[in-house]
């Protein structure tokens, strides 16, 4: 019953978003002024609009768009002259790989360093980890990306400035996407672990002679994972949005860069397809996080 209600809310949110996307994208202007020569005649512009259905009344275009949503057919990309959904589905795995690598590294590092900081509060290690995590959580992605390109690509020439290829091409984009999740997760892990390490069952385990490493990484961490999983789910959704900036700066051929180019080029079909794919991914992720949260906390399953 819970999943049914959650699915209905997800469908309603998705439909509302897609309706807004349709009308807002039309406010960007007439695509013919970008795809046709400046001196094109009015007859040529009218023929272009008729060929792509832009000559129809807005509500007729909207009804056609709603029908396309249920068939996953958003028409042909004006720029690439192929199905817009194919463009979006080809770009999304590239973004997903970048996000997955960045989040996996951030999650593992946050668990380790957050636990170290919680094990000895107010120590030198705790202060250093807290300072770096606060910087990572607050530094703007676009500023970090530009500074990294300026230092490591332009000044030192150590890594490429843009594109996709070997491991060197991944270093800067992954670093930028790593910082914010690491900073936030490290703070959450630290706070949750401090509370867990002061719980009675930890004191009882120490009295029984349970190894400190097992107490830290098994008993305490299991109970500290609830807020961490919640924040990690929200961060994954925000990383999809943050990837738009990173992919634009580093020329990464993911769905974020495709979306920005489509907006600039008034390629309505690609705009709608990329936003649909991204929205579906975020909404499905939220449902998965809810299920995982209930699995970690039996009290939620009972409720």
Walk me through the structure.
This protein is mainly α and 303 residues long. It has 2 domains: 2-71, no CATH class; 84-302, Orthogonal Bundle (MetI-like fold). The chain has helices at residues 2-26, 32-35, 42-51, 58-71, 84-119, 124-138, 141-155, 168-197, 200-207, 212-250, 255-265, 268-296, 298-302. Helix 10 (212-250) packs antiparallel against helix 12. The longest helix has 39 residues, at 212-250. The radius of gyration is 24 Å and the shape is elongated. The model has no long low-confidence stretch (mean pLDDT 79).
The second-level CATH architecture of the largest domain is Orthogonal Bundle
* Percentage of residues in strands: under 5%
Mean pLDDT: 79
**Elements, N to C (H/E):** HHHHHHHHHHHHH
Note the main sheet: none
Helix content bin? over 70%
Count of structural domains = 2
- CATH class of the largest domain reads Mainly Alpha
Distance between the termini: 12 Å
